[in-house]
Amino acid sequence: MRPSVRTAMQLALVVVAAAAAFLPPGPLAVERLYAKWLYPILQANLTSLSNRSPIALFDVAIVVFILIAIGIWTWSIRMARQRQVIRSLWRGLVATLTLLAVVYLWFLASWGLNYARPPLETTMKYDASRITPEAVRALAEYSIDRANETHAAGHAAGFPAIDASPQALIVALHQVEKELGRPRPTVIATPKWSVFSPFYRASGVSGQLGPFFLETLLNPDLTGPERPAVLAHEWAHLSGYAPESDASFVGLLAALRAGPAAEYSAWLDLVSESVNQLQPVTQRLVLQKLAQGPRDDQAAIRERLKALVRPVEQVAWSSYDRMLKSQGVEEGIKSYSRVIQLLIGTDALQVPSTKPASAEASADTPKSP
Q: Over 80: is that where the pLDDT of 75 sits?
């Protein structure tokens, strides 16, 4: 193939990727053609393939991408030293842009288009008027009560190993998916260790979905009480719920139905999520009701997080924030906290309403998500 033709084809691919990034398809088209038809087929096949590998294919893909990029520029610089510096560097730039275009289009096709789906609240009975400071506090207090009540049973049942796929959690996820309209059950990805685990540890990442082969990757340092809720969250991503709030909503509903250990894990997670949306004075008042058992589990999580490396954490979450915003998630990483609004607005947990004492009411305004 003539170099000019090859370059034209490469640039055309870059243009296609740019168009996909800046002119995404509409939410309804994505929901009907991708989320409800193409994605479940891709997910079943890619996850079935990646489950056959004992190592994370996501890791392999990243290493291959890096090696290709190094090879491109090694060749370009070598050619530039021998002849036609500008043309050689231009070809290196075009080849790099082509590689990035291929990676981005692969990401979109395999999973990324799920970001363009309609928000979960538009597909459910959702009433924004339910979201009040009193409702946020009521959810926080209810979560604390339930964490206290389920702590002993959760620990007695035992928490899953980091690489386990609890059958009860699989069944519960499939139930929630069916209720939300997914046409076929998700093929569950076996949790895997990643070579990026030191990065997870340093940045505070609990887990991630490997988008290229639709894998579930978990931080091996997760404490037992964290694992079911984190695993359910990542499997919800696998189900096609891309925004963090939507994945948390689906994952928590699944975990709450998946037996004592998963139920306790979900309530413990909800304690943190809901209390964090209260003002500091109200946080202290509400947390006084948390029993010693859940307090000890929270202390173990804080101990795990001492491995954080602040510069790595800041760069990682800042980069993820920009990525989320580039995919249409306007709140960026703040979207994690929206799960509380989803739970209250849909009344998914049917939390008993409570009114704070008048002396405390002024402290009940939730923090901005």
A: yes
Give residue-wise pLDDT tens across range 137-190. 999 999 999 999 999 999 999 999 999 999 999 999 999 999 999 999 999 999
Domain ranges of the chain: 3-116, 120-361
pLDDT digits 0-9 by tens, 6-31 = 888 889 999 999 999 888 899 999 99
Which residues 6+ apart lie within 8 Å of 147 measured at CB? Answer: 264, 267, 268, 270, 271, 290, 291, 294
pTM: 0.90
